[in-house]
TrEMBL record:
Key words of the record: Coiled coil, Hydrolase
Name recorded for this polypeptide: N-acetylmuramoyl-L-alanine amidase
CDD domains xref list: MurNAc-LAA
Keyword Coiled coil among UniProt keywords: yes
Listed InterPro entries: MurNAc-LAA_cat, N-acetylmuramoyl_amidase_3
Coiled coil: 187-214
Domain MurNAc-LAA stretches: 63-176
Renumbered residue ranges of the record's region Disordered: 1-23
Domain of life (superkingdom): Bacteria
Signal peptide range: none
Length: 289
């Protein structure tokens, strides 16, 4: 059994960095949840998260939880800020690239960049730093900085669910390789795969809808019909609403009858004459039938 501790950076009263309508704590949680879900595709993996929702959790609480649980690996997920672009990850600065952390970092680094290669994200390198999550954890640990929240192009990618899914899959592929995780047989769809499929279907649907074009707003009158619509509504043939709506046969019947009654009233001088005109009109209409 391999125990993987996933740490979505920030949360609760600590939003982390923000920019372009995004808060770091929400994006790190989404990526972390994706990582957790994708890990269900592997055998003998146990996953725990430092937070499952928008909770406030201190840095020591996070490393304490991972240490107490006896995690085999700790993955801390963050979003960068401060002006820049691209992906980078960190191991503790006292560890070399050939340390356990360094090897897992290298595998994750390569896999993430491979999974997101179509998005043309800059590779900022595999780095090291003296961060709490890397220093105070008793197991190999890696911290990833997934693009810059305050750079518009990066933020646009962070708003794209397919991208967040790809970046999470990169993390998992790297972990699987470095930690020798074995993929489950694939006869059945995992929850993450089903979600992946659903997402692809939704994307196709959106693309189709865009090709067909937006449906016209039925509450807006076309410029070429503006004068006639206004006149016909003022004259009581229509109630003035929904000019662009399709008309049914029964609605058409009401309009015809309104016209017919007005026509008879116009021609007839008194009620007796009106009845006569109506009879003659009916005779003509029946002949036309
Ligand atoms: Zn952060």
């Amino acid at each position: 059994m391999v125990k993987i501790f996933i740490d979505p950076g920030h949360g609760g009263t600590d939003p982390g960095a923000s920019g372009n309508g995004l808060q770091e704590k929400n994006v790190t949680l989404q990526i972390s949840r994706n990582i957790r879900d994708i890990l269900t595709e592997y055998e003998d993996v146990q996953v725990r998260m430092s937070r499952e929702g928008d909770q406030t959790v201190s840095l020591s609480q996070r490393t304490n939880a991972a240490n107490a649980w006896g995690a085999d690996f700790l993955m801390s997920v963050h979003i960068n800020a401060g002006g820049g672009t691209g992906y980078e990850d960190y191991r503790h600065n006292k560890l070399s690239a050939s340390s356990a952390s360094g090897k897992i970092q290298a595998a994750i680094h390569a896999a993430v960049l491979n999974e997101i290669k179509n998005y043309k994200v800059q590779d900022r390198g595999a780095k090291s730093a003296n961060y709490h999550m890397l220093r105070e954890s008793n197991m190999p640990a890696v911290l990833s900085e997934n693009l810059f929240i305050d750079t518009a192009a990066d933020a646009n990618l962070l708003k794209n669910n397919s991208f967040l899914q790809a970046i999470a899959r990169g993390h998992v592929i790297g972990m699987a390789k470095a930690l020798n995780l074995k993929a489950k047989p694939k006869e059945e769809l995992t929850v993450a795969q089903a979600q992946d499929l659903q997402r692809q279907i939704n994307e196709l649907k959106n693309q189709l809808a865009m090709q067909v074009g937006k449906p016209a707003d039925m509450n807006k009158v076309s410029s070429w019909a503006e004068k006639d619509w206004k006149e016909a509504s003022e004259n009581g043939y229509f109630d003035g609403t929904r000019p662009g709506a399709p008309i049914t046969r029964e609605e058409t019947a009401i309009v015809i009858n309104r016209l017919r009654r007005n026509f008879i009233e116009l021609i007839g001088k008194n009620s007796a004459e009106m009845i006569k005109i109506e009879e003659r009109l009916a005779a003509i209409e029946n002949k036309a039938d």
